[in-house]
Write the structure tokens for this entry.
Amino acid sequence: MGSNMAEAHPVGFQWVMEAKARGARVIHIDPRFTRTSAVADTYVPIRAGSDIAFLGGVIRYVLDNDLDFREYVAAYTNASFLVREDFADTEDLDGLFSGYDPDTGTYDRDSWFYEGTEPPRDDDGDRAKTFSEPFQAGASGAGIDRAAEAERDPTLQHPRCVFQVLKRHFARYTPEMVERVCGTPQEEFLEVCRAWTAHSNRDRTTALVYSVGWTQHSVGAQYIRAGAILQLLLGNIGRPGGGVFALRGHASIQGSTDIPTLFNLLPGYLAMPNVSHTDLDAWIADQRTGGHKGYGYDVDAYMVSLLKEYFGDAATPENDFGFGWLPRIDGDHGTYRTVMDMIDGKVSGYFVLGQNPAVGSAHGKLQRLGMANLDWLVVRDLNEIETATFWRDSPEIETGEIVPERCRTEVFLMPAASHVEKEGTFTQTQRMLQWRTKAVEPTGDRRSELWFAYHLGRLVRERLAGSTQERDEPILKLAWDYVTEGEGVWVEPSADDVLRRINGHDLTTGDLLPSYLGLKADGSTSCGCWIYSGVYADGVNQAARRKPHTEQGPYDAEWGWTWPMNRRVLYNRASADPEGRPWSERKKLVWWDADEGAWTGHDIPDFPRTTPPGHRPPDDATGPAALSGDDPFVMQPDGKAWLFAPHGLLDGPLPTHYEPHESPVRNPLYRQQGNPTRKVYGRPDNPSNPAPPEHGSEVFPYVLTAARLTEHHTAGGMSRQLPYLSELQPALFVEVSPELARERGLAHLGDAHVVTSRAAVQARVVVTDRLAPLRVDDRVVHQVWLPYHFGHTGLVSGDVVNDLFGVVQDSNVFIQESKVATCDVRPGPRPRGPALRALLDEVRAAAGITVETGTRIATSHGVPHTEEGS
Amino acid sequence: MGVRTWLGSIGASTPLGAWPVYRQLTGADPLGRGAAAQSPKHVGLRPRTASADRVAGSVCPFCAVGCAQKVYVRDEEVVQIEGDPDSPISRGRLCPKGSASLQLVTGPQRLDKVRYRAPYATEWTELDLHEAMEMIADRVVAARERGWQERDAQGRRLNRTVGLAALGGATLDNEENYLLKKLFTAMGAIQIENQARI
């Protein structure tokens, strides 16, 4: 679901086809019949933006028919935990959970906690929303102290136990309701239910695959939650052939999340300090509100080791290891907020490194206007991309909104070294690091980002040398002493040395660390990213291993290196029953070897190696030692997988169907229309199309969605310039159904333009049955699809599809909703120049759009969330 | 004497042997799909992979599947990029994008020199790489200073700048992201983001 794997990840898809050849059943659920659908056993249509209703329906089917994997659910999830008495569900409050504050658009989450536990501190959903706190919970789990002491009912009968809460929450997600919300015919939906449950038991597992078709929604994190709940109920997590697979879209996007260039994270999912963290102890205490149990408790060792890598000998116990030198966040510093800050004149300079936001980010016009209001811009790329040339040939030149002679932005366009002209690691989508050797030296001015970062740091340090200003201290104290290659000043830093520092050292011996288990909080170890520790175990670059798959076992443990500790299946303790025996011979992965007194198996066990299955920790134990023998979810504060999330998410402890921010229909399930916590930016340059119950939605009657083609890559910067790929996919097109073509007078292969309140995009019409109209809540809903790769430079060009989308985000992680919006489709080419602006003025007026449109996120409260001064 | 034997007896030492039809009729390739159809030039052709000086083990730079590539180099130039059959991930396969990697790396679209656009200019001009680096470092120091925030309205320490921002990382190496985050963090820059947010 939410993935067109055959086209977007074709080589990975060979394994789906291999499984199919061996008897697996493949089901594809998608708004559009794609090449993935074509080779699946079953294709099931769904309305874009309604996946939680669908998954909730499957969850209800499982619970109603007692088809859950009861032993797994009772032992390994929080099904038996009791929820507080004052918790109120969306069933009780018509689409809201207890604790909602309409003024801030956030929840006070205290009532979501387990019975018998107290919120660790003043829980402030408003503050958490300002800096995407849930994104920071990766290293230490979501905060809920002493969660293991919560009251439980092992029989799962107590009306307030999670299992019963779940049943009530999804009771109305019936096959009839699924059909009404998703447009999926009941029989096709039930076929999915039957297949999923029939292939999930001791002997069988089912895998779930998603991509950005799930994440890019205003309720995206809850899409993933819904998938995870279902897989947990069916015992499909931590077991071979099971799991939830996120297929990611860039060579090292997993790596750039693990070692983040992200505003609210430090390497290894450690939280970026915020203003409340006056010292290291305050930061550690805040992280440990995640509880006293599991590997997350050791965040002190992870953080101190990072600071030792950052600041070397300058990081001492006396100066808090330099913690005070780190900048503090106190709000939204995400990429979209930053772009609006550019427009508002708050940002001077901008580096764009191997990314093309003028095409690839939602609301491209906002991106380009932001860049046009900078002092300087540095773009580093292989090719001349749209982001570098906005001042010369962006669509705003034609409309007069950017005039080169009046645009003050100074632009440096620097050639980057390609993947074969430098060495280093990419982390692929299954957490595997693979080292690339350098094939040739880069020529001309082409340089690696490693070179760029290293020398920028060197030059800034030169300029600040001798400064006595406190703010310059961290730069001057920075451990910037990497091994380099070559002669003179402009040397190349060694990626191998950087990887060694990421792996970490025992500073008392100088040895490379074997894994993160040896990290210390006393300053005697350094480590750039704790989850990557072990990539250089035994002094060997483990990521560079390339033992052919024909010469090793099914888990290919000697090809590359997978974090953590070369473990291929996370939480694999769950592949064995509570007593430590495999659930079945067929699905054997990791088990307890009583003779050895250790966990063993085909994969690296994801559990303290010698903690036996029946172990019960003493009350005063902390960290990994506090795990019981049947706590497979070793990063969770209670060792259990969360069907119900008592903490950590901002928009609810359970997934709930909300309509997208822009939708042609009223939410059939609740009075509450959209996600009541979604992050809106109510400002004149970011208009929203109206959605019911607002008036004017009929001006944009169709559902708009966008995705990839096989032959192009993301914003096209690496594909529209290549002759082969450009020849294969030469033009932007829009797919519409024959019914919609008739309704709007669109001719196959003729021109049409797709219109939203932000932009009009011209494309050639492809009339196809691939995009069938759906019957949703007694009306026909048409969906419109475009590939989003095109821009105005390159061998093939086309309008920027992302210009059609506005900026509205999931409150948990700040991902924009760019997989669904509403639109109109009109025949013929779009107007150009000033006439285009007139068209957009006209549709905005017709729909009655103001700065408040779409910002009343709580349907029954009517409080607009607009920016000051708008 | 059969026809084939007769033809063979006269063709062995004459130009007739260069005639494909003749070879097809007399040789071990009666269907004319192999040796019989080859010209001397054709016979002399060798795959670029065979004449490479060395092969570098690499990984495809497009999506996150992580297909292994073999990069063939001759005379310090990349001459071919192919899938690596040893990989347990890709088993030698590449998709259309991965197969076009050679064009990505060696094509004429590649930038080779720094391009500079002065404020209000309508065209690019050239700029020396090292001079560009010095200019950028000057601007970073100034922007950092301009956007510096020492404390918030409640007097809490911020210790940061909002004067400069960065975007990108999902196409870069882990080691590169590591240095970028480390440097920007030490400078107090917080608006550091990449494709993973999108």
Notes: The CA atoms of residues 128 and 145 of chain B lie 26 Å apart. Chain B touches chain A through 118 residues (CB under 8 Å). DSSP finds seven helices and eight strands in chain B.
